[in-house]
Each structure stands twice: as C-alpha cells, then as structure tokens.
Amino acid sequence: MNFNKNFNDIAENYLFAEVADRVSAYAAKHPDKKIIKLGIGDVTLPLASEVIKAMHGAVDDMSKSESFKGYGPYEGYSFLRDSIRGYYLSNGVQIDSGEIFVSDGAKSDLGNILDIFSKDNVVLVPDPVYPVYVDTNLMAGRKIIFADANEQNGFLPMPDYSVNADIIYICSPNNPTGAAYTKDQLKEWVDYANKKGAVILYDAAYECFISDEKLARSIFQVNGAKTCAIEFCSFSKTAGFTGTRCGYTVIPHDLKKDGVSANKLWFRRQATKFNGVPYIVQKGAAAVFTPQGQKEIKSNLAYYKNNAKVIAECMDRLNIWYTGGANSPYIWLKCPNGMKSWEFFDYLLNNAQVVGTPGAGFGKNGEGFFRLTAFGNEAATKEAVLRIEKLLTK
Q1: Is 309 in contact with 330 (CB distance < 8 Å)?
Q2: Which residues share a beta bridge with 332?
Q3: Please, which pLDDT band fits residue 370 given cuts at 50, 70 and 90?
Q4: How far, in Å, CA of 76 to CA of 319, rounded?
Q5: SS3 content of the chain, % helix, strand, coil (to 5)
Q6: 128 preceded by cis ω (within 30°)?
Q7: Cβ atoms of residues 199 and 230 within 8 Å
Q8: Chain centroid, CA 204 distance in Å
Q9: Structure confidence at residue 94 as a pLDDT band (50, 70, 90)
Q10: What's the sign of the alpha-carbon dihedral 286, 287, 293, 296?
Q11: Triad 278, 173, 261: Cα angle to 5°
Q12: H or E segment to which residue 37 belongs
C-alpha cells in the first residue's frame, strides 16, 4: 500500500484551519476579550421561514408510506431542477433542466468535476485564488499555471493567448478579492477558451450579490459559453445553506470534445459516486425560488450587502485601497503601512480583537492584502469597523 504522494505538494494546514488555530490561542490567553470574526465567509442569519416551512412539509412526507422518498434521482428531483431553470430564465438565460445537476455544494462539485478530465490537462487559475481550485488539482498531480491578478488589473486578469491551458477556473464575484467581471470581459475569456479548446469552470457562488447590470450573473449570459463552460452555484450564500448543504452544476449539452458529452460523463460519474441530496433539503432549496422565498432571501441578502457597505465606507474614510464591497460580500483591502498579510492579521487580532483572512493564504499575489467578509452580525460588523477605524487613526 502507498499513499497518494501528491498530497505532499499541498499545504499541511488548510488556510482557515490556521486562522482558527491562531484565534483559539489568542482567546485562551485573553478570555476577557470579545473577538469579532469577519474572516470565514459563513452566514449568520437563519434559514428563511419559507424554506423552513417547506422542509417541515418534507419531513411530514417522509412519515407517510404514500409520500415517503428513498433514493432520489442522481441529478436531483425535477421539482428543484425546474425551479433552478426558472431562476436562470428570470436572468435571461435559457437552459434545459437536463443540464442541471443538484449536489451537496459548489465546493464538492468544483473538486469532483475533475474526475471527468484527463490528468494531463494543464490548469489555469488566478492568483490569488480560492484554495480548493489549486489543492484539488495538486492532489491529482496536474500541472497548474497562474494568471496574475493584482492591484494594477483590479484583480481581474484577462486571457493571454501566448498561454495554453485546458482547464480554466474563474470565480466572479471573486473569492477572495470581491472583484467581478463584466459580460464583455467574460466574452474575452469565452472566446479564448473556445479558441484553445479549453473548458472554463465558472464558480458563480456569489452571483446573488450582483446588482450592476454590466456584470454577469451567469457565464451563460455570454454568447459562446455553452460550448466551453461549466457553471457551479450554491445555496450557501444565496439562502444560508452553509450547514444544510445544497448546490448545483450546469453542464450544457453543447459542451463536447471529440463527440464525447461532458454532460453524460458527469451523469455517469454521479451515478457511480453520489447518491444525491436528501429530499428534505431539496424541498427547502426549491422554496428559495418561490415568490415568498425570493422576497425573504432578498431581505437577507440586503442585510449582508449593508454590512459590506459599512466596511467599504470605513475603508474609504481611512483612504485604504480595496476591491469588492459592492456586488460582493467580500472586501479585499491593501494592508496599511506596508504590512504583510499575517502581520496585519496579528495586529488586528491583538489590538482590536477583529479577525479577518490574510491574503497571503490565497497565493503569492495575496501577500500584502487582507479579506474581510460581510456575513457577520450587523451590530458586530459595526463594532468591528469602529475598532478598526480607531486603531488605524491613532
């Protein structure tokens, strides 16, 4: 027996585990200090009442022989896939229900989708980047190249035709930087992918925060995307399902290579390795797209958007450069006074008891930057901003 030696190529500790360890150590030494966490992008508001009502109804269904559900369809129940299709249609995107696959979250699918691709594919990811994109490919032994996202390009790198890649990761609005591509900018990536015969793995987990019509809610709003893109989305941030777990992946029928359908490959993979999302969870997810569900969800999103505005306005007052804050729950700021990322992390924790995420944990281009999230409690977010402003205006 031998272990997968590719695991030697990834960091021993996951970024957020390191953050948690440092915070726990500080809290143990200073039990009297109130720590405010704006680091991990976990939601704080409870599930919408319409979602809870649907889940309760589904629990009742499971208690009766005539409505009990056992194994469900590998790709998800049709009532949820049809609801997702309707949501796309409301944003001007026409997709078929057979192109939608329900899962336990975008994070899982972004890693698992690699099963359908050859290990000799070259992977292009932006730097800084959500760690899962890099780590899952390193685990498989793929070659990874990086697209420079930096202050000069607003952390929105554009395609370079001198670079050849087979799999391209794009997250917009981006985690960690909060930067978002316009439809015109995404068209350049779509044209590049089609020219190179590559596939774009498009992470749309934060699309619900977009209000600017120039920005893309879906890559399928761009002509040509259906022949080169797979889209991943999640109910985690849209509807607070971080602990409930539900997401979906859209694989167009038109995405093929040498006559082989990516859609069919993914269905075959799921049928072998996945038994689907619980009926109760899927009923709750479908309730998100009802008129009442949308009303409640938008109210929750407005709460987080206001938190982002509060943090962004603080950065404006402090004259600190940042991306995000609008159309994104993340504020990606340049560390003041030339501090390194972990240095600023410790400085904030020790002097203001505020926790963020060091940009260096997202890649070399993240060094000197820092991420704050808008998913905290409203009162705590305002208190954190007061502490940060007081500390940095001494």
Answers
A1: no
A2: 323, 371
A3: very high
A4: 48
A5: 45, 15, 40
A6: yes
A7: yes
A8: 7
A9: very high
A10: negative
A11: 55
A12: strand 36-37
